[in-house]
């Protein structure tokens, strides 16, 4: 059955990835446009995360939020800042993904 909480969670994850990815571009909050983007993204992120947790158990929501956030920020940092994850980072992200899958498929939370 469809759970609207996952839409709120997706919005939260996307806005968290945006906010985190653009922090560096705020130039220590001296760039007003990027600063406004980051503050707006984080505000939307936590609003949407709060809504998501009204439908999804906290442990599930937070584990997915963290896991997808880490992977999303890594992908954006590759694009925006030309940062390349090394082999241990790739293994760690694989573990994060597998942990999220295991928690969602097998957990009774």
UniProtKB/TrEMBL annotation:
It is a multi-pass membrane protein. It is found in: Cell membrane. GO terms for biological process: glycine betaine transport. One of its GO terms (cellular component) is plasma membrane. The keyword Ribonucleoprotein does not apply. One of its GO terms (molecular function) is amino-acid betaine transmembrane transporter activity. Keywords: Cell membrane, Membrane, Transmembrane, Transmembrane helix, Transport. It comes from the Bacteria. The chain crosses the membrane at residues 29-49, 61-81, 87-106. Its main location: membrane. It holds the Pfam family Multi_Drug_Res. Belongs to the drug/metabolite transporter (DMT) superfamily. Small multidrug resistance (SMR) (TC 2.A.7.1) family. This is QacE family quaternary ammonium compound efflux SMR transporter.
């Amino acid at each position: 059955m469809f759970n609207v909480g996952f839409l709120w969670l997706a919005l939260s994850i996307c806005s968290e990835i945006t906010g985190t990815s653009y922090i560096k571009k705020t130039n220590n909050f001296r760039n007003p446009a990027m600063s406004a983007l980051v503050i707006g993204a984080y505000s939307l992120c936590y609003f949407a995360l709060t809504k998501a947790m009204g439908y999804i158990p906290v442990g599930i929501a937070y584990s997915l939020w963290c896991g997808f956030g880490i992977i999303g920020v890594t992908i954006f940092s590759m694009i925006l800042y030309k940062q390349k994850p090394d082999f241990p980072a790739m293994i760690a992200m694989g573990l994060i993904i597998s942990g999220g899958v295991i928690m969602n498929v097998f957990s009774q939370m």
